[in-house]
Design goal:
The chain is of the alpha/beta class. It is 39% helix and 14% strand. It contains 8 helices and 6 strands; from the N terminus they run βαβαβααβααββαα. It has a 6-stranded mixed β-sheet with strand order 3-2-4-1-5-6, sandwiched between helices. Strand 2, helix 2 and strand 3 form a beta-alpha-beta unit. The protein starts with a strand and ends in a 9-residue tail after the last helix.
Length: 236
């Protein structure tokens, strides 16, 4: 029997909208983000066997309407939190425009062991978190729904394709991959098991098109995200 796992990125956050933010874990959804969360909860017509969310506020608030619809409990997993590239204390009150030079400098260095400061993590630490979760995918029940973050999901897809993450070349290659991977707010990727640690990956385009039609705009198309050339501009 095949297992299907649905990965749902959180709705539009204050950072995605270009607003100043502080603690990455406490970045809230915008009004548009709440609308996206409510709409995707209506459009994803499956009864979940398990709902898991990152402990970050924006994912918890995105998962709530879906969980309420099915009277499901939400399990929070610390492995799912987004990549903390920059030390939170150094970017307090900054918006995405102010952070961009720091983000660019981090990725241009392409040092997988570089830690920006207290509260940040290295690229290898981030990728290892994703790997730890990935190795347990086969234990999850069919129709598990996971609410999380764009860069985290990109790393999951990257690893499922067999790519590494422990050197400068692979870090730079991942960044190019991540920037090119469509990851709109409330976009859904479905993983379907193909055997041990082998998963087919499919973007749920029909649900995304219905979401756009229902909302009247395309999630993840804000000015701040255009500046960063991707909906996942950190913090995400």
């Amino acid at each position: 029997m095949q297992t299907r796992i649905h990965l749902i990125r959180h709705g539009e956050s204050a950072a995605n909208a270009g607003l100043p933010t502080d603690d990455p874990a406490l970045i809230p959804l915008t009004e548009a983000g709440h609308r996206q969360a409510e709409t995707v909860a209506e459009l994803l017509k499956i009864r979940p066997s398990l709902v898991i969310a990152s402990p970050y506020k924006r994912t918890q608030d995105t998962s709530s309407p879906f969980a309420e619809r099915w009277s499901a409990q939400i399990a929070h997993d610390s492995l799912l939190h987004e990549f903390t590239t920059l030390a939170p204390a150094t970017v307090v009150g900054m918006d995405v425009y102010a952070r961009k030079p720091l983000v660019d400098a981090y990725w241009n260095a392409a040092d997988p062991n570089l830690m920006h400061g207290t509260g940040a993590e290295t690229f290898i630490e981030f990728a290892s978190r994703v790997r730890a979760f990935r190795l347990g995918l086969h234990k999850l029940p069919d129709q598990t729904v996971i609410f999380g973050h764009g860069m985290w999901f990109a790393m999951m897809v990257w690893q499922l394709q067999g790519f590494g993450f422990d050197n400068t070349i692979s870090m730079r290659a991942f960044r190019r991959f991540q920037l090119g991977l469509p990851m709109p707010n409330c976009g859904i990727y479905t993983l379907t098991s193909q055997g041990k640690d082998a998963w087919a990956v499919k973007f749920q385009e029909d649900i995304y098109k219905a979401l756009v039609q229902r909302l009247g705009f395309a999630p993840g198309a804000g000015a701040a995200e255009v500046l960063l050339a991707h909906p996942d501009g950190p913090p995400n």
